[in-house]
Fold this protein.
Amino acid sequence: MILEKYSFGIGDRFCHQGKAQLSAIMKAKEQGLSITPVWNKSHREHTIIGTTPADTRQEALDAVKVLQWDGPYFVDADHIGPGNVDRFIESSDFFTLDVADFIAQPADKSDIDAFVKKYSKYIGSLTIDGIEHTLDITEERIRAIAGEFLLAVRQAGGIYRHIAEAKGAGSFITEVSMDETDQPQTPIELLFILAAIADEGIPTQTIAPKFTGRFNKGVDYVGDVTAFAKEFEEDLAVVAFAVREFSLPGNLKLSIHSGSDKFSIYGPIAGALKKFDAGLHVKTAGTTWLEELIGLAMAAPDGLSIVKEVYAKALYRFGELCGPYATVIDIDTAELPTAEEVDKWDRQSFASALRHDQSCEQYNPNFRQLLHVGYKVAAEMGTRFTNALQKHEAIIAQNVSENIYERHIKPVFIGSL
Ligand SMILES: [Zn+2]
């Protein structure tokens, strides 16, 4: 199974926007841009919402059937680890092996020694096509990288083999993710992580490093855009080099997690993809749930009262909801409106505070991030929430589809807004 050059992680908290999401991918196809949709959903999301991986598969199947999509598509077991992989085996054909928790856990000294010995040929000044300067590689550096990442990659190998045994090698796509950690990985680290992945025999087609800067959920990139652009280009160069050097899958590409709404880096990303003729996978799942809220808010009065209730409860349960997302949100609580204030808002005020339009004075990224992680509240509303999604399907679908196509696909893959 081969993942094509461009792919897009849509996923969907409540499994209601499959068609709206797919319609955005189809719109790209009409423009001559081929993108594989991947419905991704993590164990964390399933647990919080009370859905199963089979629900995600069904959502994809329904959307594909109704819209008569004849291209490839996948269902991604997102951020899975040894403890929860089994419940995804049957329904998924894309597995994102999350081994971030094993970073910095030391591997056996003999394993580290063997790794250092094997890759000592790169010690010195390494030239890589596409990187202007040479990479200075020392034995100490390789040893430090092995100490940091070797055990994590071994873990990924274990999960990969477990899945391959159950499903058959070649019958699924593998991604290795290390994004949910505090320290970004440098291009040199990425190079040796890929070497270790090749040694483990993991046929990874996508790799999700932690990039420099903050990739907070649902809001723009926070950090030095120039530094990101340089690192991203170097990562692309390293991936291309690693494919040749370590015989990794020829279509191996970077995967950007929490990739939605990073408007300020889409330009540099699009430019780099063209420059390196590289592919990309972008995960954007959570942004669709926010478009559902915007659609509901616009569908006053019943939809508006539901979203106000979601906000009030999310604010009250701030710590509980934000906890699992600590590394991927930054909320300034002083900037959060009170529930009483929000209760007075009309539909336009609610939608304007939430919609990601940085030119709009009412836009509030703190409000947006809290709602981003507040989907548990809506899940607990049960059919009251999902019935509202159904009732207001038309306006929500329009928001979902437009957001994906206009604000994400176009700037990332076409390179224009
Ligand atoms: Zn991630």
Notes: The two ends are 32 Å apart (CA to CA). Strands lie at 6-9, 36-42, 74-80, 94-98, 124-126, 135-137, 173-177, 206-208, 253-256, 280-283. The chain has a mean pLDDT of 96.
